[in-house]
Design a protein that fits this description.
The complex is a heterodimer of chains A (112) and B (115). With 112 residues, chain A is mostly beta strands. Chain A contains no helices and eleven strands. The mean pLDDT of chain A is 94. In chain B, the strands form two sheets. In chain B, strands 2, 4, 5, 6, 9, 10 and 11 form a seven-stranded mixed β-sheet that branches. A four-stranded antiparallel β-sheet of chain B has the order 1-3-8-7, with no helix packed on it. Chain B is globular and about 40 Å long. The chains are: A mainly beta (112), B mainly beta (115). The interface between A and B is medium-sized, with 20 and 20 residues.
Chain lengths: 112, 115
């Protein structure tokens, strides 16, 4: 079992729809959770961080964390073609020397 | 804020030569920097963790004598690919972590082609 699992996709949604990206992790000691966006041929970019159970909203993005279920998700409201990218989920375990464990990413395509 | 630069953005070198890549945090001090490699259509792969003033910690399977990492200051880390071969051709990306959080800020990456 991978430490951080994501559905590789591709996930395709129409413009204006809500895109839902999911991530599960295996280590219950995980404390910090991040979503990065990576456009094709570019490096990742941090878009959200979440540390406690519940929802965290930033513009069109909402991160949701459920530590009991070991599940973190990212919702993108009013999806735009410019949101088409690979979304990487990353998890930090305090004992892991500050390294983040990344999922393999979910590729999202938003169709006009 | 939280800008990380990388230089060069693209490099082509001949097999057997060495290439140095620089990673700088421009507006914050990075106690920890990370070096990743990513092949086309593949996942991000952590190569090593670099802490200022100490030796880098390499991931399993990464040759430390081939990929030399130096983190001389709180804003600069370098990766030197020694005796590069065509199989080392890849997208090398650094990231920097400010001391207070676990968030990582990535540089734009260096595309290395070894001919």
């Amino acid at each position: 079992q991978k430490e951080v699992e994501q559905n590789s996709g591709p996930l395709s949604v129409p413009e204006g729809a809500i895109a839902s990206l999911n991530c599960t992790y295996s280590d219950r000691g995980s404390q910090s959770f991040f979503w990065y966006r990576q456009y094709s041929g570019k490096s990742p970019e941090l878009i959200m961080s979440i540390y406690s159970n519940g929802d965290k909203e930033d513009g069109r993005f909402t991160a949701q964390l459920n530590k009991a279920s070991q599940y973190v998700s990212l919702l993108i409201r009013d999806s735009q073609p410019s949101d088409s990218a690979t979304y990487l989920c990353a998890v930090n375990i305090k004992s892991n020397a500050g390294k983040s464990t990344f999922g393999d990413g979910t590729t999202l395509t938003v169709k006009p | 804020g939280a800008v990380v630069s990388q230089h060069p953005s693209r490099v082509i070198c001949k097999s057997g030569t060495s290439v140095k890549i620089e990673c700088r945090s421009l507006d914050f001090q990075a106690t920890t920097m990370f070096w990743y490699r990513q092949f086309p259509k593949q996942s991000l792969m952590l190569m090593a963790t670099s802490n200022e003033g100490s030796k880098a910690t390499y991931e399993q399977g990464v040759e430390k004598d081939k990929f030399l990492i130096n983190h001389a200051s709180l804003t600069l880390s370098t990766l030197t690919v020694t005796s590069a071969h065509p199989e080392d051709s890849s997208f090398y990306i650094c990231s920097a972590r400010p001391g207070a959080t676990y968030e990582q800020y990535f540089g734009p990456g260096t595309r290395l082609t070894v001919t």
